[in-house]
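Give me structure tokens for this 398-residue protein.
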Amino acid sequence: MTNRILTGAKIATMPTAGGYGLIDQGAVAIRDGLVDWVGTDMPAEYSNWPNEDMAGRLITPALIDCHTHLVFGGNRAREFEMRLNGATYEEVARAGGGIVSTVTATRTASEDNLIEAALPRLDALITEGVSVVEVKSGYGLDADTELRMLRAARALGTLRDVRIKTSFLGAHAVPPEYAGRPDAYIDEVCLPTLQAAHAEGLVDAVDGFCEGIAFDTTQIARVFDAATALGLPVKLHAEQLSHIGGTALAAQYGALSADHIEYANAADAHALAKAETVAVLLPGAFYTLHETQMPPVAALRDQGVPIALATDCNPGSSPLASLLLVMNMGCTLFRLTPLEALAGVTCHAAQALGLTDTGRIAPGLRADLAIWDVAEPAELAYRIGFNSLHRRIFGGKG
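Here you go.
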């Protein structure tokens, strides 16, 4: 791999200690796919390396989308139209809408179909400087389809220069054939499928949906116990629509992240801080569902909880494949600062996935970089519907 040095850049290193870690008129040396040095006074050892002048452009860590449902069959545009034409939730459901429609479409899709459908969404993220994407299962709700979704997710990482992290989300919803029998579904489908997926090397983490319309804390705890026995980290959709104790449960299990958390409170924020669990905010779902309950951003700040942002790309509540738009939404809807937004899709997003080799610019870390045609980091969150990416570097290539 060719060694090189990028010079004449403004560099946002995004250190774990906080702040942009800005370096003006700085340089980044890349050796064998890793950052070898970053700073202003270039050591003599790099003087003969190929030199690329960045002409004052901004370099940040490549972006990370730490919560997506990128692999699924079909779409829900028809029910979106129905709702806007006045149909009720019940009318949409009777017409075959809701998660049932996605489950049906996903179950009938082949692995190749799922890959083909997901690639344009993945490409949209990559063109915005994304280098890591988390992908969940959860739209199969039977063993065959859950495994097929995870295989399709893994395949995406072989077809594009991107890292894919998979989360098993068998505890996403109760399928129609198990209506009224959530515990039976967990026993007969969710837990055995988790075992099979882990045996096949398809799982990086285990997720669940802890909500009145999905699974309660006792049921999720059983799934988390199985994950822990397999040595897998956990994360959780928690407190999105109500407060039933999901955030506290996530903290109890030392979860990588608690996601959504609109109905979480100050005590939950304290628990997350103590557990070193990342709060992943998902403004796309907040926007699409016309939610009004804000996540407890002030409490998270007060407790020092790392805040990440993600697209939640899914066919129902967040049909969104732009992490740059998410940054703007995080600022405009949740009143995050541009610094918090950028940290939310770099260093804190890496933490939400348990990654320690990316999300920052520092010696020894992967050279996953995004080069932007902007003068200041705040421009990334400020602009709406505008992609200022000049170039993406993935593992030193690009």
